Amino acid sequence: MENEELVALTNCKQRFVLLKNKNKRTPRQSATLARLCEINQPIYKAMLLTERFLGVYELKTEDEAIRHIYEWVDDALESGLNPFEEIAWSMVEKIEYILNWFIAKRSSAISEGFNNKIKRLKRMAYGYKNIEYFKLKIHQHCGYLNPRRFNLN
Fold it and tell me: Which end of the chain is more exposed for a tag (fewer CB within 10 A), N or C?
């Protein structure tokens, strides 16, 4: 019975419940996740680690963040969950980049967004005949060029 229930709880309609922010879950999604955690211990551990890590966004100082991250890394390494162990080692290797947020209060989210738009445009750009037209399309997709102001035909 538990195996069938586990399959039903992890079907494709339910799987994003695991990724959804705790504050944005519906009561039904919360109940589904609670039952899933009762049935499957690794998922329960993963949920606890995920929610604990998200606490880093509420911290104000670099010292608090360092302490929080290293405590989380210790918990992740002791969890026995391979994906979390890999993430923990990656965080240890890149801790200075993570802490840059607490020092400068800036992120690279905007540039990452532009890079993703350019990559997507590049995949669609097989028909572009020259690099100048490609640059114009990049400007257009990133919001730097109003297509109504220029006749590109």
Answer: C
Closest CA to 133 of 125, 124, 144: 125
Specify the higher pLDDT residue, 62 or 150.
62
Asked if 113 and 143 count as a contact pair (C-beta separation under 8 A), the reply is no
Cβ-defined contacts of 4-8 (< 8 Å, 24+): 5/35, 5/39, 6/36, 6/39, 6/40
Is it the case that residue 39 has pLDDT exceeding 90?
A: no
For residue 124, give the nearest of 143, 136, 137, 140 by alpha carbon. Answer: 137
- Asked if 6 and 40 touch (Cβ cutoff 8 Å), the reply is yes
CA distances 26 to 7, 44, 89, Å, are 21, 18, 33
Helix (H, G, I), strand (E, B) or coil at 133: helix
The C-alpha atoms of residue 141 and residue 146 are separated, in whole angstroms, by 9
Half-sphere exposure (Cβ direction) of 148: Cα atoms closer than 13 Å: 0
Both tokens of residue 110? Answer: 């905007």
